[in-house]
Amino acid sequence: MNSTEITLRKAEIEDRNIIWKILQQAIERRRKDGSTQWQNGYPNPNTVESDIAKGFGYVLTVDGEVAVYAALILNDEPAYSSIEGAWLSNGEFVVVHRVAVDEKFAGQGLVKKLFDHIEDFARSHDIQSVKVDTNFDNLAMLKILESKGYSYCGEVYLSGGVRKAFEKIVI
To answer: Which contiguous run of DSSP H or E holds residue 123?
Structure first.
């Protein structure tokens, strides 16, 4: 009888404090892992409010409780126009940024579920692919992308750093 409801929905302004708490946990986790990613004051509370205001902020909820945050941006990531390498496609795409999981939901495979939901979202809007980048040392995310069938396409430059770029065709 004990089934869990997992839902992807647009973030509301009321979610901003929990989202920022989740991002702070992720920033600290990256720091403890010795990563340079997210260690320079970005993302910050303004990033969260801007994401929500622009309609980019999404939350994955577990039985109504916010568990994962991600920014989903349609067709718009200037850094992706100059890739050292090649994208799989040049049609419409969803960009995934700022993925972070609440610690109390860590290790439950929710980021994989997030990507399932994002791929469904893309398909339901007739969007050809999902593009994502991550730091070379973000081993957890690299593993997830590999397990979800994302192809390594090359390197992009974002916020002063080199990122590994991936794409998956979903239609």
So the answer is: helix 110-124
Q: What is the CATH number of the domain that holds 111?
A: 3.40.630.30
Give buried/exposed letters for 52-62 (b at 16+ CB in 10 A, else e).
Answer: beeebbbbbeb
Tell me the β-bridge partners of 162: 157
Domain range for residue 86? Answer: 6-169
On the question of pLDDT at 160 being above 80, the answer is no
Query: Does pLDDT of 1 surpass 60?
Result: no
1 in a domain, yes or no? no
pLDDT given for residue 137 in this prediction: 87
| Mean pLDDT on 81-96 | 95
Tally of domains within the chain: 1
Query: What is the distance between the alpha carbons of residues 77 and 98, in angstroms, rounded to a whole number?
Result: 13
* Within-domain flag for 144: yes
50: which DSSP letter? H
